[in-house]
Design goal:
By secondary structure, the chain is of the alpha/beta class. Helices cover 48% and strands 15% of the residues. The protein has 9 helices and 7 strands, in the order βαβαβαβαβααβαααβ. Strands 3-2-1-4-5-6-7 form a 7-stranded parallel β-sheet, with helices on both faces.
Length: 248
């Protein structure tokens, strides 16, 4: 098991990609702290994991709450070895139809949330001279995405933030990387994208070389790799898991 006895914090762990990541980390031996706005959903995944897994209801946009929960994780297990920033949200619409309130929500969840989580876990990681931070960005942050202007900006910011933190913390042997999913079949995608536009999924399948949408289980192995010591000399990198939709 590549992550035996490692303590891993996963945000957005109640469903979709976050759930798949939490289960994959647990299968590799990690003690998983599951953070999600949906506390009941996170608790259900913790029960599915069994063992030492534990859930906390957390809004990642609330930096004070994030800091409190990370302190509770450290009190419970002694430290944090791995952080996976997976919590995210979007709904598509033309930029001219968006509002400042919408911008604030998108940036709070998708950019400020990972910043707050990273800020909370770095002190114990620096103290022990070891850490793995993996942020789930998006190919929208690399190449843009129609109808997702502010989301694309947030994810692009997350990619840039990742590279900077990787530079700042390399001397402490902390690896900081991004995984960028392409269009993926998740509960959020079904609710906010496919639901309002039923033909969207089929149109995306036609432009993805692999011929299908991504699945949460496609993303999790890349995260496990980056969270493990197999990726010990990889930092500041962005890996797309998109079925070939983007090749840049």
């Amino acid at each position: 098991m590549r992550l035996r006895d490692k303590v891993a914090v996963v945000t957005g762990a109640a469903s979709g990609i976050g759930r798949a990541i939490a289960l994959a980390l647990g299968a590799e031996g990690a003690r998983v702290a599951l953070l999600d706005l949906n506390g009941d959903g996170a608790a259900a995944v913790a029960r599915e994991l069994g063992g030492d897994a534990h859930a906390w209801p957390v809004d990642v946009a609330d930096a004070a709450r994030v800091a409190t929960v990370v302190a509770e994780v450290v009190a419970r297990w002694g430290t944090v070895h791995v952080l996976v920033n997976c919590a995210g949200w979007d709904t598509p619409m033309p930029f001219v139809e968006t509002t400042p309130e919408f911008w604030d929500k998108i940036l709070a969840i998708n950019l400020k949330g990972p910043i707050a989580c990273t800020h909370a876990v770095l002190p114990p990681m620096i103290a022990q001279g070891y850490g793995k931070i993996v942020s789930i960005a998006s190919d929208a942050g690399r190449v843009g995405s129609t109808g997702e202007a502010v989301y694309s900006a947030a994810k692009g910011g997350l990619i840039a933030f990742t590279k900077t933190i990787a530079r700042e913390t390399a001397r402490h042997r902390i690896n900081v990387n991004c995984v960028c999913p392409g269009p993926s079949d998740t509960p959020l995608f079904q609710k906010e994208f496919a639901g309002p536009s039923p033909k969207l999924a089929e149109s995306l399948k036609r432009v993805i070389p692999w011929g299908r949408l991504g699945l949460p289980e496609d993303i999790a192995p890349a995260v496990v790799f980056l969270a493990s010591d197999d990726a010990g000399y990889i930092t500041g990198q962005t890996i797309s898991v998109s079925g070939g939709l983007t090749m840049v």
